User: What shape does this take?
Amino acid sequence: MELSQNQQKVNQYLVDIIAKAWEDENFKQSLINNPMEVITKHTKGALKIDTENIVVIDQTDDNTTYINIPKKPNIDDLELSEDQLDMVSGGGTMQAVGPVEEWIAGAIASAVAFGVSLGESIGGN
Assistant: This one.
């Protein structure tokens, strides 16, 4: 399944934010303390979050296992794209990626599925 251009941009913004948080402790603490402001500033307002709150939790402690419980999807409102229908019916292909990229892609896919979108300022929908 290929991502739309908007989904690719959202993915890239989130990968950049996560990478910066891994490398810059001050950025990470700012992101934890005031995620909406930091994300808006870091993406120059291009990444829009369609919720009132954002929770950022530092999950880098090797001695702790973190479990994220996402919002339960409403199956009645769920529609599959043509690509997703192809995947379900066996017509799609998967691309292998490394474990870090795979984890980030999964986290980003969850975020995209639950309200993260791009603003009009970068050609979003």
Notes: Residues 96 and 102 are 8 Å apart (CA to CA). Residues 5-122 form one domain. The longest helix spans residues 5-23. The longest strand covers residues 47-49.
